[in-house]
Amino acid sequence: MNLEKSNSRELAQLIIDKGVPANDASTQLLPYRLSDLSLRKSDLEEILDDLTSKVTKSRDKAVVNQHRSNIKHLLLGILAAAFDFKNVAISTRTEHHHGDQLLGKLGFDRRRLQRILPVLIKEDWIRSTLHGYRSTGPAPSKSSQYFAGEKLLNHFSDCLYEVENDMLLPCYHKFNEFPLGEAPALALYEENEALLLRYNLFMAEHSWAKKGPTTRAFSKSVERAGRLHNAFQNIVNRRVPIRKNTLLDGSAMAEPDFSCNHLRMASKLVGEDLSADPYSDLVRAVGGDASINRNLTKKFITVCIGATSLKQKGGLMLECSREKNTTPIPIKTFQAMLEATEKLFPWVNKEKIFFNDAGVRMQKLEGEIGLRMFKWALNEEVPMLSVHDSFAVKEKDEGRTKERMNEEWIKVVNKEKE
Questions:
Q1: Where are the beta strands (DSSP E) in 84-165?
Q2: Is the dihedral angle over the CA atoms 81, 82, 87, 90 positive or is it negative?
Q3: From CA 301, how far away is CA 299, in angstroms rounded?
């Protein structure tokens, strides 16, 4: 057994031991495929033969192939979501299976899906974690949700490394909600597009979990957002320590990061300095509330910097509480953290750092740092993956990567101050 197979099976066991995700931790069904490596594809074919025969007795080849394709999509999509520790929400409502909807595009229809799902559950490949319902009140309706069963995780845990999206894309930049739906002039991002192409072609020669391309996304204008995105960064890490225990080219990885990055960037841009751990400082400044810990203050600061208005307060309290999958935090607790922040960091209020859409500005700076790190990685031939405000590299490259990260952080933030 090679290192990646051994590693993927150990990680699958971590998920099995954890149980099932919370009901609000869900994603839509996405298309994945097995690579043609070793015997895994032939192994899947045998399982598809068995399951398809239990789902339909039709002798029509087209009908059989439709069921077979749907079963494959379900198994691989639910398996991939498991490594993000998320349920997969699947609607059986007819309108969600039309050709212009995701399930319709994947070749599903309601009746076929209703035949397949009970068989996959009965055969222990998947688990039903939430029965869908149509709400009659203000709360939204819920689609049924499913999670990988032990049988699926144990049998196909190797897919963590085998599932792979095409690294060569027509464009590595995404422009969401731009006016008239039009992308900006190519000249504005042509140099970065060429860099992302070079980077992704370089990384195509390397191996890691949920391998796929890295892209950059902007929202509404080229001044908003600009973070780097890839499938790897979505692998669950806090609830279950999966991502940090995966391998890069068969080697253990490290993820050097920036401490308190958005708040620290904001402070530098307005000429202020922070302590080594401002989140813990905020916990002490609030005082007396045992429910407020470092993770909560970190989430609180991040969502307040990302908010566009204080009117979002209700949603912000919900976001702050999702770390523990609990109900929204009480208004008094939220207010206490807000008041403590204003006393501890008075410049936050003076410079309108909170509730002023400042987060997207920090995301753009993170994207700029990421691009500069990719350029360095290409020159040094260091395989590297962006993970929000950190970079995943082989453990042997951690020291020099961290040193370079700090250099690029200073350059990008100082340039923004000019």
A1: 87-90, 126-130, 144-148
A2: positive
A3: 6
| Radius of gyration of the chain from its Cα atoms, rounded to whole angstroms | 23
Tell me which residue of 199, 166, 364 sits closest to 265, measured CA to CA. Answer: 364
Give the tens place of pLDDT for each residue, 341-362: 999 999 999 999 999 999 999 9
Q: Tell how far CA 384 is from the center of its chain.
A: 17
- CATH number of the domain at 173-261+359-417, please? 3.30.70
Cα–chain center distance at 343: 34
* DSSP letters for 175-191: EET-GGGPPPPGGGTHH
The strand pairing partners of 221, in sequence order, are: 219
Structure tokens at 405: 């990260």
Mean pLDDT of the chain: 88
Least confident of 27-31, 97-101, 320-324, 390-394: 320-324
Taken in order 243, 249, 252, 255, is the CA torsion positive or negative? negative
The CB density around residue 127, as the number of other CB atoms within 10 Å, is 18
The pLDDT, as a whole number, for residue 29 is: 85
Q: Where in the chain is the domain with CATH 3.30.70?
A: 173-261+359-417
Nearest to 63 by CA among 128, 133, 116, 7: 116
CA angle 20, 327, 341 (to 5 degrees): 120
Query: How high is the pLDDT of residue 268?
Result: 94
DSSP state of 7: H
Contact assessment for residue 286 and residue 292, using Cβ atoms and an 8 Å cutoff:
yes
pTM: 0.83
Q: Which of 57, 72, 69, 32 is nearest to 159 (CA)?
A: 32
For 45-104, write each residue's pLDDT tens digit: 889 999 999 999 999 999 999 999 999 989 988 988 999 999 999 887 777 777 777 788
Q: Which residues contact 322 (CB under 8 A, 6 or more apart)?
A: 24, 299
